[in-house]
Amino acid sequence: MGGRRAPEGSPAAGNDRLKAARVRIEDVAAQAGVSMKTVSRVLNHEPNVSERTRQRVEAVVEMLRYRPHPSARVLAGRRAYLIAMLFDNPSSNYLMEIEMGVLDACQAHHYNLMLAPLAYDDHDLVRKVESLVVQSQLDGVVLTAPITDDAALLARLAALGVPHSSVSAKEENRHAGVAVDEVGAVCAMMAHLTSLGHTRIAHITGHAAHGASGWRLTGYREGLRRAGLRFDASLVVEGEFSHESGHRAAKALLKLKQRPTAIFAANDDMAAGAICAICESGLSVPQDISVCGFDDTPIAHQIHPALTTVRQPTREMGRLAATELLKEIREPGSGGFVNVPYTLQLRRSTGPVGV
Known about the structure:
The chain is of the alpha/beta class. The protein has helices at about 10-20, 25-30, 35-45, 50-65, 70-75, 90-110, 125-135, 150-160, 180-195, 210-225, 245-255, 270-280, 300, 315-330; strands at about 80-85, 110-115, 140-145, 165, 175-180, 200-205, 235-240, 260-265, 290-295, 310, 335-340, 345. It has three domains: about 15-70, 434 Repressor (Amino-terminal Domain), CATH 1.10.260.40; about 75-180 and about 315-340, Response regulator (Rossmann fold, 3-Layer(aba) Sandwich), CATH 3.40.50; about 180-315, Response regulator (Rossmann fold, 3-Layer(aba) Sandwich). It has a six-stranded parallel beta sheet, with helices on one face. Strand 3 (about 140-145), helix 8 and strand 4 (about 165) form a beta-alpha-beta unit. About 40% of the residues are buried. The model is unreliable at about 1-20 and about 70-75 (pLDDT under 50).
């Protein structure tokens, strides 16, 4: 009563036998008429494979429904096919976007991703990262701010030969990775505010340990200079890149004898916190005080009024950082540093003075 078996020696018969057992890389190589090394290169998106060969191998992989076993890949290539994203950042919106971008790159290149939360100010940070790399057999790590700028960690990773790339590292720490011209972006935002007639503009900084905090403060001061405005230290309040710190900083600014007419917060979470504080004080945004941020994370669209902000393509930045890391893993020295463009997103949280 069973179905008809394919004639012995026919391609269909061969496929029947392959389905009866797990398809191996040897089966793909034999069917495609290439070596196992060539199949491995195609699966790992490595160079030095002709487009015609690549297409033939990919067609056989699809036909046989071959899926490489993780342990076999490790043994064949002496890699774990695993990278980690190291982070210590209170902005969950920002981290989620970066993480999704890193995942995009990992999935495209058949790698797995480990998320590793760390404390930047932990005196044992370097040892913990070294232990993570060794115990998990990581192929490399993506560093996010402020971990990107830990000199001792960078030196140890280099000494161990651990490939790494960074998201928004300081100029002197840039190897493989990605960044935006943050100083130029903030200058553009300041030009937007001054064009609306604002002359008393406050700034809520990020955490002092983050390179981005320094760049954005520099952009704020340069923007004032270009507009012919004097820097006033009383209008600068330190935050920590969190909603709570933005709320707290805005409360302090509202207590000034002469309050600001506009607030530039160093990220969207703090800008959202500032808007909450202003509304709680019985004032309106932007009628009484304009507010703007940086990043264009989802919260910028979720609050009311919608937030004017600098858009840096955070998901794309995560993808690019991981892509450059994977290049570095495959061929040391091949990973590069990529600068991505920013754009101003002008929304309803900013307006002319007194309007």
